[in-house]
Amino acid sequence: MANETEDAPTNSASESHATSADVERNPTDEDKNEKLLNDAVQFLPTDAVKDLLSKEVCLRCIFRLFGMQVPICSSLSVKSLLCHVLGEQADLHQNISSVEPNICRSCLGILQFTYCGDKERVVENESACDFAVAIAELVKKEGHQIDSFSLEVSMPPTILENENKLSLYVKRKYRSEAWFKDRSISECSSTKDALKFALTNPLETLLDVKCGISTFHIRLTYSRVEASIRIQNFVEKIEGCKRRKVDAKNCLDTVKDKSAITGVENSVVSTTEVIPVDEKSSNGLQDNEPSETHEFPLKKVNEPCRLECLCFRTPIYFGGRYLKYSRNVSQTRWIIDEERMGEASIEEIIGGNILPMCRGDSYKFHAAGREDIDVRMLGSGRPFLFEIQNAREVPSELLVKEIESKINSLENKLVRVKNLKIVGSQGWTLMREGEAEKQKQYAALVWISRPLQDEDFQTISSLKETVRCYQILQKTPIRVLHRRSPLEREKIINWMKIEKIAGSSQYFLLHMCTQAGTYIKEFVHGDLGRTNPSIGSILGCRAEILQLDVTDVKMNCFLTE
Ligand SMILES: [Zn+2]
């Protein structure tokens, strides 16, 4: 502990030019880890280690097979690890490739941190720390601001098969040895766990956050290159043979029967580079053949796995309520035959302000129901949920309030947002809850074909008093028949009230509260008898609706700040 202050390492992880040196731990930890490594190495059965190395199993696969998970292994190169394991053999230092396989036959290079990257370029990393640096660079390049991360690894099924074959081989060969009897099966870790273990600490240091359950994901997806490329090459070569008017079968036969290669045929072989027969046994084309596939040593590997490294954030949600003051704004972007309907949309106005603040890829807009383009949304507003895909940044509460004020101070004043906040995915539950029972309040400007009479007020408002609520039957309105199935629905009108407009005898405001999903326009004019009863049928005259406002959506969702 004494040297803790004088040797405190400088951590520049938050800067963009990170190196694996940043991952080095403080000296106390390092000493402890070094001791752990030396202790663990002592118990490794040297003969078995050498045997496995000779069968082209990499050192880190051997470590995982013997349950060795020492944090310091992440920062050490294979060379240093080999020195620890087989230190007494000085000549190893000179020629590592004679000891450590080029590409491990068990993990296919995964635990050697070697992979096929973009454009089939093979990337080699000395240590897990070097690999972690490359991953951390990607996270920074993508511009993610994170407070934690989760690490996900997916591997081709071959890896698991290889692990099993390897364990089986060790078991068969060494089960009588004392060291084998002492160890338990549970000591052995999988390739996937070993990789995660090796990467977690260096990544935590480089990114300066903890690994765990997080909305930010680092996903490493390994897949096999060999088979697909080989087959593709093979097909191309056969195509090449065909182009030279040489039958593909003859072409292969020519190669197989080496003694038959004459000067002329030889030129065919050299220009088309058909795979030689002795390479064919290990070229991945034999994958479906059962022979040898269950035996050890494992098949020789020519290429490492292809790696796709993705970092992304799972969607974040903004909840709130919106108000719409215009009769020319649609709820979502509405384009018919390349022509925009209305002057704007709620979705674009709100999304266009939220998305850049989160630096996300895209957004999805969900609302609790919808109103027509010419219907205003007033009162407490309509609940909505904005889903932001792959946000690089999760805005603070303060910033969310700023987004809200920005939307609300837009010059055109088409839309207003209330109670905007970041909600978890439980926002969905809130939106769905009560959606079936939710009620809506409306104010409609109505015209009737005769002057309004005193008893009309009574007729309309007494509905509530006499039957508490009023049931109507609505067939799917003619105007939406092209996109909705023809059904008959029962809807409830909870109450209605007429408000007289001064100086006008045939126009009035109709206030009402109805069950969600009631078609109000049709309830007023009757839709050629498809809605029954209607205001027209109740008052015994023609009724037309001129304007409509939603004055309230009775849902508790996002009602408070
Ligand atoms: Zn390996």
TrEMBL record:
Residues 104-229 form the Pus10 N-terminal eukaryotes domain. The keyword Isomerase applies. NCBIfam families: pseudo_Pus10arc (TIGR01213). GO terms for molecular function: pseudouridine synthase activity; RNA binding; tRNA pseudouridine(55) synthase activity. Residues 8-19 have a biased composition (Polar residues). Residues 22-34 have a biased composition (Basic and acidic residues). Belongs to the pseudouridine synthase Pus10 family. Residues 317-553 form the Pus10-like C-terminal domain. One of its GO terms (biological process) is tRNA pseudouridine synthesis. InterPro entries: PsdUridine_synth_cat_dom_sf (IPR020103), Pus10-like (IPR039894), Pus10-like_C (IPR048741), Pus10_N_euk (IPR048742). Residues 1-34 are annotated as: Disordered. This is tRNA pseudouridine(55) synthase. It holds the Pfam family Pus10_C. The keyword Isomerase applies. Its EC number is 5.4.99.25. Keywords: Isomerase, tRNA processing. It is an enzyme of class 5 (isomerase).
